[in-house]
Design a protein that fits this description.
binds ligand AR6, about 180 residues, Leucine Aminopeptidase, subunit E, domain 1, alpha/beta
């Protein structure tokens, strides 16, 4: 599903965040140490190669809600923006911390002149955030920030499973109508 909102393309696709060659930046659902992990952090670090961990080392640790930017190394993108989502039921307030991830990632994208950015469903895997509220929090934040974006023209949500794409599409439809 692709939508144009205030001149910005917003879309949800099924896919792998490490295979988004037409996006300038991809977002990592990182761990605090910015090391290789499972899920998104595994896929991104494996595809980027060990130089990504080396570049990340002096930037760690990061706090829940924080975002940092690096190069993309062997990934087909220019940048990786690493966000630490809240662990559901542990890091509070979860909704605000998740919103901060999206807000801070988009701010870094703006500061770096990035035109296109792909997000995974931050916190909605190992960190246990239920998919529907995670999708609602993500879209609410993005829609709130849209009027202030000038560099970013294309925002893509890359979901691993088809069912997650359907959840995102349903949530987005409710929010924009
Ligand atoms: N592309 C897109 N989405 C993916 C991919 C992929 N390659 N792999 C998994 N997902 P997670 P979190 C989905 O666990 O919850 C790591 O071990 C997945 O189905 O990657 O923020 C880190 O080291 C889920 O819906 O991120 C951290 O310790 C969503 O992406 C911790 O997990 C997020 O799942 C971060 O946990």
């Amino acid at each position: 599903m692709k939508r144009n909102l205030q001149g910005i393309t917003l879309e949800c696709v099924q896919g792998d965040i490490a295979h988004q060659p037409d996006m300038e930046a991809v977002v990592n659902a990182a761990n605090a140490q910015l090391r290789i992990g499972g899920g998104v952090a595994g896929a991104i670090h494996r595809a980027a190669g060990p130089e990504l961990e080396r570049e990340c080392r002096p930037l760690a640790p990061i706090r829940p809600g924080q975002a940092v930017i690096t190069g993309a190394h062997n990934l087909p993108n220019r940048h990786v923006i690493h966000c630490l989502g809240p662990i559901y039921g542990v890091d509070q307030p979860a909704e605000e911390l998740l919103a901060s991830c999206y807000r801070n990632a988009l701010q870094l994208a703006e500061e770096n002149g990035i035109r296109s950015i792909a997000f995974p469903a931050i916190s909605a895997g190992a960190f246990g955030y239920p998919m529907e509220p995670a999708a609602r929090g993500a879209f609410k934040t993005v829609i709130d920030v849209l009027p202030r974006l000038s560099s970013v023209k294309h925002i893509r949500f890359v979901l691993f499973q088809t069912a997650d794409v359907r959840v995102h599409e349903r949530v987005l439809k409710i929010l924009i109508f």
